[in-house]
Amino acid sequence: MNITGLKAVVLSFLGVVLAAPVAANPFEGVDFKPIKNLIFEGESSKLNLSTAQDTPPVLHVVKSGLRAQSCRPILDVRRVQASLYVHVGFKESASGVTRRCSVLLEGQIPPHLSVSIHQHATIASLKGQFEAISIASSNSQVSLVGNAGAFEMESGSAVATIEGTVGALEIDANQVVAAFQLSDLSKTRVLRIHAENVVADIGLPEGAKLEHNIRASISAFTSTFPLLPEAELALDIRSEIMSGRLYAF
Predict the structure, then answer these.
(1) What is the pLDDT of residue 69?
(2) Which of 108, 110, 86, 90 is nearest to 99 (CA)?
(3) d(CA 65, CA 108)
(4) What backbone torsions phi and psi does residue 246 show, to the nearest 5 degrees?
(5) Cβ atoms 112, 131 nearer than 8 A
(6) Cα(56)–Cα(182) distance, rounded to whole angstroms?
(7) What does the pLDDT read at residue 22?
C-alpha cells in the first residue's frame, strides 16, 4: 500500500481472544443483534462513527504521524455477553521497541447502541442515533450530531459539542468548553455541567421552559430565558469561573 506524506490507511482485524496485527474489517462476521454496548479502550485514539440501519457494520483504521510508516496498531475485539470491546494497542518490533502513532478508528455501526470510550485521551465524532454515550478520559473532545438517550463525560479537560437531542446530559471535569444546540427538549430530563472552569454556549428552542440554576464565583454568563422555578427541566451549571450564554433559536 502506498504511503502519501505521513498518512497510511490500514484495515483492521477481528481478534476474538488474542490480539493480532491490523488487517481486515474487525466487525465482519460479528452478530450485532445481541450487542447493546460498544466499548473502546486501550491506547488513545480518534474515533469517527456514524449509525446506519441497513449497512453492515464496518471499522477501518487510519494511522498518521511521524511514525505512521513503522507503527503497527493492534485491535483486540472481544464480546462479553451484550458488550463488544475494542482494545487499541501497538505491536512491538523485532527489537522490542513499541512505536506509537496517531490512530483513527472510523466506520458505521447499527443505531441505538450505547458507545463508551475509556481511554487516556480521545477525539470522537459521533453521528446518528445512540442509546447512550459515555466518555471517561483525561483529555477528551467529543462531538455529537444526532440523538442520544444519555450523554456523560468525566474528564480532566473536556470539549463537547452537541447538535440534536439528549435525554440526559452530565459533564464532570476540571475544564469544560461546551457548545450545544438542542432542537427538542421534550424527552430531556437533566442538563448538568460541574467543573472548575466552564465556557458554554447553549442554544435551546424558543419558548423552552426550564429552571436554570447557574452558580459561579466569577461569572460572565448571560441568558435570554426567564427563570421558572416550577419547570420540570433544570439547567444546572456549577463552576468557579464561568462565561458564555444561554440563548433561544
Answers:
(1) 79
(2) 90
(3) 24
(4) -120, 120
(5) yes
(6) 30
(7) 52
Number of Cβ within 10 Å of residue 173's Cβ equals: 26
Report the Cα 165 to chain-centroid distance in Å.
Answer: 15
The one-letter code for the residue type at 141 is Q
With CA atoms as reference, report the closest residue to 7 among 80, 75, 68: 68
Cβ-based neighbours of 189, under 8 Å, separated by 6 or more: 167, 168, 233
Residue 178 grid coordinates: 461546551
The answer, yes or no, to whether residue 19 has pLDDT greater than 60, is no
> For residues 142 and 58, what is the distance between their CA atoms, to the nearest angstrom?
21
Q: Is the CB of residue 181 less than 8 Å from the CB of residue 191?
A: no
pLDDT digits (tens, 9 = 90+) for 123-161: 999 999 999 999 999 999 999 999 999 999 999 999 999
For 205, the 3-state DSSP assignment is: coil
Cell of 58: 464496518
Is 221:247 a contact under the CB 8 Å cutoff? Answer: no
84's grid cell: 463488544
Q: Roughly how many angstroms between the first and final C-alpha of the chain, as a whole number? A: 48
- In angstroms, what is the C-alpha Rg of the chain? 20
Cβ contact 98:90 at 8 Å: yes
